[in-house]
């Protein structure tokens, strides 16, 4: 963790302290909506970018410099852990991530490697380079994918709309699902604790596809593992638990005892905040599609969220999910300005 931060607004909010305005960063801020990202992306493959610490640091710093964010997020991907486990991963332009060797049988699952930290040394190296570049300017967030979300990519072999193969596995061979989920959970604990040891200032667990599950399946196949992971983390830095579907699953998300829960846009943020135990902070929850709209609308919808949190301790402004690649950069910049000019 950085010894002294020049801007510690994000950390103070994550620790449920009152701040003069909400800190702001955006999920997927280090990405494709920035023309400067494409200048780098056109020269390298996505995995090359993740695996070359200097390039990962360059991309991490793009939104920090261009948008003056209150937190940086490590440029990497949740899929680097399943890749290190043995997944043959590629990212195809316009198609997204693809594993050529999906994991669907016991035989496939037994081959998954869990002793993967040496293979992920490039992440530790990137964190060190980024922290040198940040030089205490703002905190750096590390992250990992939650086991269920990672499982869905390993089983489907790609992005999916209906999670058909994943659900077939959960329903037909829950024992196998649990076997794989436990492997992912174990290495996620090691991976996040490694990021913390190397120097990130906070970590976020991304359970992007939890919303595909019923309440009971979420409890059994997702929540149980997230709870296990968070209980085993080195709590010297704040832990953020993000879940798409948090509007429904918030009571369970709270049970995992993170410092911050990060919610999507379905719920009224004030209502969810009021259901949190003392000392737990909240992050969210603008619908990212608002950022396609006119500036007047962007401003009104941002202010609506911020105003509704007046008097609350521990609020980090963010989107309810990642920013889309074709959102105009100028609109994103404007959203940052609106939040940064606000004072409670
Ligand atoms: O083609 C390209 O340029 C690559 C696009 C890209 C980028 C910029 C991918 C491929 N990943 C990333 C970076 C990334 N991914 C970050 C960097 C830091 C930041 O937030 O700015 C982070 C935190 C992620 C996390 C991630 N990857 C998630 C969880 C967050 C979320 O949005 O739900 C998920 C689900 C992924 C998988 C993934 N990686 C990339 C793609 C295209 C996808 C598929 C998404 C899908 O299945 O719809």
From TrEMBL:
PROSITE patterns: UROD_1, UROD_2. It catalyses: uroporphyrinogen III + 4 H(+) = coproporphyrinogen III + 4 CO2. Keywords: Cytoplasm, Decarboxylase, Lyase, Porphyrin biosynthesis. GO terms for biological process: protoporphyrinogen IX biosynthetic process. The keyword Cytoplasm applies. The keyword Lyase applies. Its EC number is 4.1.1.37. It is found in: Cytoplasm, Cytosol. GO terms for cellular component: cytosol. Its main location: cytoplasm. One of its GO terms (molecular function) is uroporphyrinogen decarboxylase activity. Substrate binds at residues 28-32, 77, 153, 208, 321. Pathway: Porphyrin-containing compound metabolism; protoporphyrin-IX biosynthesis; coproporphyrinogen-III from 5-aminolevulinate: step 4/4. NCBIfam families: hemE (TIGR01464). This is Uroporphyrinogen decarboxylase. It comes from Sphingobacterium hungaricum. The lineage of its organism: Bacteria, Pseudomonadati, Bacteroidota, Sphingobacteriia, Sphingobacteriales.
């Amino acid at each position: 963790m950085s010894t002294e931060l020049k801007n510690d607004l994000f950390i103070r909010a994550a620790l449920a302290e009152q701040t003069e305005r909400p800190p702001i960063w955006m999920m997927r801020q280090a990405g494709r909506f920035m023309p400067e990202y494409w200048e780098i992306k056109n020269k390298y493959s996505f995995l090359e970018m993740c695996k070359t610490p200097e390039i990962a640091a360059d991309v991490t710093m793009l939104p920090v410099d261009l948008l003056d964010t209150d937190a940086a997020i490590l440029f990497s991907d949740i899929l680097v852990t399943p890749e290190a486990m043995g997944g043959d991963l590629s990212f195809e332009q316009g198609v997204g991530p693809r594993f050529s060797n999906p994991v669907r049988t016991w035989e496939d699952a037994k081959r998954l490697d869990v002793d993967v930290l040496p293979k992920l040394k490039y992440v530790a190296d990137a964190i060190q380079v980024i922290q040198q570049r940040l030089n205490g300017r703002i905190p750096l967030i590390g992250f990992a994918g939650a086991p269920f979300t990672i499982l869905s990519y390993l089983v489907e072999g790609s992005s999916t709309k209906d999670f058909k193969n994943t659900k077939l596995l959960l329903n037909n061979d829950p024992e196998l699902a649990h076997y794989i989920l436990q492997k992912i959970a174990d290495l996620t604990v090691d991976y996040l604790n490694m990021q913390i040891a190397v120097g990130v200032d906070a970590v976020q667990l991304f359970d992007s596809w939890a919303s595909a599950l019923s309440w009971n399946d979420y409890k059994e196949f997702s929540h149980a593992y997230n709870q296990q992971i968070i209980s085993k983390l080195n709590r010297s830095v704040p832990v953020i638990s993000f879940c798409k579907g948090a509007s429904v699953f918030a009571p369970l998300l709270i049970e995992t005892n993170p410092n911050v829960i990060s919610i999507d846009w379905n719920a009224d943020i004030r209502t969810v905040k009021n259901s949190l135990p003392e000392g737990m902070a909240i992050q969210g929850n603008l619908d990212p599609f608002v950022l396609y709209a006119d500036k007047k609308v962007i401003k009104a919808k941002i202010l609506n969220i911020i105003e509704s949190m007046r008097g609350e301790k521990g609020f980090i402004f963010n989107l309810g999910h990642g920013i889309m690649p074709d959102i105009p950069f100028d609109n994103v910049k404007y959203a940052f300005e609106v939040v940064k000019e606000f004072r409670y």
